[in-house]
Amino acid sequence: MLINFKMRQQTELPLKEDKANFFLQISTGVSVFLFSMVLAAYFMTSSVIASWNRAIIDGMTVQIMPSTQAISADEEKVRIGKVIHFFENLDGVEKVALVKEKQIKRLMAPWLGANADIEALPLPKLLNVHLKNGKTFPFEKVSEDLKQDFPYASMDNHGLWLKKLVKSATSVKTLALFVLLLVLSASILSIMYAITTSLKVHQNIIEILHIIGATDNYIAKQYARRASIVGLASSLVGTLTGIIALRIISHLSSGLETGLIGSASLSATHWMVLVSVPIFAALLAMCTSFWCVKHNLKEMY
Amino acid sequence: MEPYKNILTQPIVDMHNVSIRYGKDPEILSDINLTLDKGSFHFLTGKSGAGKTSLLSMMYLALKPSSGTVTVFGSNIGYTSREDMAMMRRKIGVVFQDFHLLEHLSAYDNVAAPLRVRGMSENEINKRVKELLSWVELDKSLDKICSTLSGGEKQRIAIARAVINRPEILLADEPTGNVDDDIAFKLMKLFVELNKLGTTVVIATHSTDLIARYNYPQIHLENKKLKIIPALRRIKNADQF
Ligand SMILES: Nc1ncnc2c1ncn2[C@@H]1O[C@H](COP(=O)(O)OP(=O)(O)OP(=O)(O)O)[C@@H](O)[C@H]1O
Ligand SMILES: [Mg+2]
Across the interface, which of A8, A14, A212 has its CB nearest the CB of B89? Predict the structure, then answer.
């Protein structure tokens, strides 16, 4: 008699047996896998760009060669002051500081020995130029101008090629974003295709449901429920595969000379976003199919 | 008392200058007028292809007229929202000639479907469906999948599904078209009982035998037109069937 009290959560549409399900599972899984990978690439590129930008913002070093003739300390001061002034007057410069001799001494110690008499040596003077945050700094032009006005001063140009790297990395980022959108719209389209096909296959059932008084929402909910289940399951597989692939890639590349690319790692936040991709995929599948069913049913009487 | 009279006599179905055509085909029904009062009982007759099914489809809101106005439960279906249409369909029970059952589901689930779409609790559904299915002597076949059942069993499921919601309108399209005479008259008895409880009934049939046994008016379709043939004869022993 127990069967009498069996709660049946029966859905009238046999969506579980839909032929399109297999297609949807595969395409969702592959899409989510691609999406996770590209998203990870996007995050990594972002953090690399951020670290390069930080290096640029940290500023640059300007080297002032000692005079070839013997000059007085005052003349030397004027010579250095002019270069400091040159940088201070530039747009985008936050602060210019002369590196103290003590510090130079420390920097030089490994080469000259701790007791070297720096005063007596014709060592170059160093300026730390700090740049303002968020301003674009015309490295190339400044470098040219400096060479012309003060041939005895030179600017290290790592900021310049970092800028170039940032530029190309940014286009990689844009490309990644474009691929993400592409994968996203392809998934939405394939869900819509599967739904439209399924609605045609089940037209008889839907007509019957309408005649017994089912609202469009009632029918759309059965589709949405199915889509979220299929979406969650296959995107879990997709993301998991993606994460495994990422681990393998990072393991393989760990032996490589990383240097600058050392910062191409994923932060905790990035991991969290990656792990929550299946939830977003399920939500997307659910909303897309709900909307798609409603839209298609409107054409029926 | 006048307002009450108005409410009571407001037609449940009203068709005004209605024509039906499918696509670019010639009209099947042309400029017809029909009023069904609450609690009325009609046979719907006419040759094959006269348009009986088409006329019924308009009443169960599955077909829109190509011209004219159809009013059901007082609302013009040309201006009724999809949501309201669904609510109206819940008050209409339909028996199709070819059953139109959800073949992949059990007898139980077919009869339960109209209650589920209304969001009724499974406990209440369980009670009602069991009761009705045992009344149509199908309590042994509750869990059998429809596609495995016989024609007569399907017929009873179709009728159970049509009446489970205690409809205000019952539309049956040749419900006795392919069953034995004794089943046919048993079913008729059910329709008569429902009508006594206030349900408006329209039954499309070819059976002159059936029409002859009951004293109900006929909606007759012929040459794209509709005419009402009033009930004239009183058969005293009609109830014996
Ligand atoms: N969906 C449709 N598309 C095109 N023509 C249709 C459609 N449904 C019905 N017809 C045509 O409309 C006419 C009336 O059909 P209908 O089914 O209403 O007749 P009927 O009186 O119910 O016939 P029967 O007694 O054989 O059931 C027929 O000529 C039929 O071919
Ligand atoms: Mg017919």
Answer: A212
In chain A, domain spans: 2-54+163-300, 56-162
Tell which residue, B9, B12, B195, B175, has the closest CA to residue B96.
Answer: B175
> Does residue B65's CB lie within 6 angstroms of at least one atom of ligand 1?
no
Half-sphere exposure at residue B97, Cβ-oriented, CA atoms within 13 angstroms: 13
Query: How many Cβ atoms sit within 10 Å of the Cβ of residue B82?
Result: 15
Does the beta carbon of B205 sit less than 6 angstroms from any atom of ligand 1? no
Q: Are B133 and B139 in contact (CB under 8 A)?
A: yes
| Residues contacting A253, CB < 8 A, separation 6+ | none
pLDDT of res. A263: 55
Residue B171: its pLDDT value, please? Answer: 97
DSSP class of residue A42? H
Q: Does the pLDDT at position A44 exceed 60?
A: yes
> What are the two backbone dihedrals, phi and then psi, of residue B226, each rounded to the nearest 5 degrees?
-120, 135
Per domain, the residue ranges of chain B are 102-166
pTM (two decimals):
0.78
Taking CA atoms only, the protein residue closest to ligand 1 atom 2 is: B22
Q: Could you report the per-residue pLDDT of B66-81, keeping only the tens digit for each? A: 999 999 999 999 999 9
- Note the ipTM here: 0.89
- State the pLDDT confidence band at B177, using cuts at 50, 70 and 90: low
Which CATH superfamily is A56-162 part of? Answer: Multidrug efflux transporter AcrB pore domain (3.30.70.1430)
**Ligand 2 center to residue B77 CA distance, Å?**
22
pLDDT of A189 reads 94
